[in-house]
Amino acid sequence: MTEPIIVQGGMGVGASSWQLAQAVANLGQLGVVSGTAVAVTVARRLSEGDPGGHVQRALEAFPVPDIAGRVRDRYYRAEPRAHGARFPGVARPVLQPARKDLELLVVANFAEITMAKAGTDGLIGVNLLEKIQLPTLPSLYGAVLAGADAVLMGAGIPAHIPALLDRLARHEDVEMRIDVAGGEKAVSRFSPSEFLDGHPAPEVRRPRFLAIVSSHTLATYLDRNTSGAPDGYVIEMPVAGGHNAPPRGKPNLDETGQPIYGPRDDVKLDAIAALGKPFWLAGGWGTPQRVEEALQLGAAGVQVGTAFAFCEESGLAPELKHAVLARVLDGSMTVRTDPIASPTGFPFKLVELQGTIAEVAVAEARPRKCDVGYLREAYARPDGELGYRCSAEPVADFVRKGGTEEDAAGRRCLCNGLLTAIDLGQVRREGYAEPPVLTAGDDLLDLERLLSDGDHYTAKDVVEHLLERVGALA
After folding, report:
1. What is the distance between the alpha carbons of residues 301 and 245, in angstroms, rounded to a whole number?
2. What is the predicted pLDDT for the residue at 316?
């Protein structure tokens, strides 16, 4: 098959929206929606009255109407949500979710992909994080039911995903091991037949799996996996936005407190090419010159996130996009790789914009609370049962669960901040509104090249710009 030259990065919580993925797919490239916390984003859109009716139309396509109907009835509100009103709660991910929460996980992933695919004959993928393990199985099944063309996953070692997709495409029971701090690994299980509740299983096809890796060593390991290898690879460099792989070897910080990457972090692209699978280069490859270079190096193309994040079709709040692009134009924009901000422990890129949690004063003024919970980790309680904790939750709670004050220091709530960045932020009972968090790669500082005609641009502008040295749109 002809591979897309451009893979649109799966960004944050809803920044890579279905509208953006659809626009990119219509240009002959791979559009990607975010599967991270999509249960929360879909529930909140329904509670806002589902402007445009897009979610409800997607629910009508779900193969089991009763299940989709229950999700709609639980969260849909016909009356528009009042300004400043609280969103209804959505359960945090756990090892054994209640039936209603399982339904939301599957249906939400199905809906997001279905909305993207509804307006295009092009390719639509979904991005998930290996680090967020608890919702993985139902999320994958929702993607399979929706006919996703690809699943992309990084932030860990996703060795088990190819075999899981094989089984889910056959509607077979699956299980995967869950990391547990201070104890034995737990096992997450999902049964498609139980989930379908007696309804016939629809005919589906298996999505391709593209592993997002930051080293040739990991790619080689995954390719030798006897239970199934990835269908391709995205090779991500440390200047990419979002979470980055930590530097290899002894951690060192520069004078500004950012991680230092060295020769050990370089990727041997000849070793990647020798695997014989298509691969795309990510992180600093978002220019026409670098696209041309990637193709000359044997890559199928590049993955680009940052340029798409601030285009008109992305899910980011318009006022945040305008504020960032204004600072790009006046040369005052900065991006910082923070080694401790993320509860995952991975370095995380923060766009340093006033009013976001990149500001120390804003971060410290936020009451510590973990009520979205996608970055929680499972831990073994003294009684042998499984518990959940987040290093960005109240320090006393985290310490009571076996964490340390040192590990909690400087951690910031990314879940709530990323939801605010797409205009779905929570307002607390006391009236406190969650501040946003923005992430982008170092390429953000170079976006002026897309702004020659004003302070905005489209996904089409991005794709045409990237491909200007390789001919007409693929």
Report:
1. 21
2. 95
pLDDT of residue 239: 61
Q: Can you give the pTM of this predicted structure?
A: 0.92
d(CA 344, CA 331): 31
Angle at 370 between CA 369 and CA 375, to 5 degrees: 145
Name 186's Cβ contacts closer than 8 Å, sequence gap at least 6: 95, 177, 178, 180, 378, 386
pLDDT digits (tens, 9 = 90+) for 176-194: 999 998 878 899 999 999 9
Q: Which helix (H) or strand (E) covers residue 102, if one does?
A: helix 99-117
Length of the chain measured in residues: 474
CA distance 238 to 255: 18
CA-CA distance, 87 to 374, in Å (whole number)? 17
Contact 314, 421 (CB under 8 A): no
Mark 28-63 as b/e (b = at least 16 C-beta within 10 Å). bbbbbbbbbbbbbbbbbbbbbebeeebbeebbebbb
Please give the pLDDT value at position 472. 44
How much of the chain is in helix, strand and coil states, percent to nearest 5? 35, 15, 50
By C-alpha distance, which of 120, 1, 166, 142 is closest to 67?
A: 142
AA identity, residue 102:
L
Cα 314 to the center of its chain, rounded Å: 13
**DSSP line for 403-453:** --HHHHTT---HHHHHHHHTT---B-TTSPBPPP-----GGGGGGGGG-TT
- Mark the ranges of the chain whose per-residue pLDDT is less than 50: 472-474
Looking at residue 473, its pLDDT comes to 45
Q: Could you tell me which residues come within 8 angstroms of residue 273 by beta carbon, excluding any fewer than 6 positions away?
A: 279, 297, 298
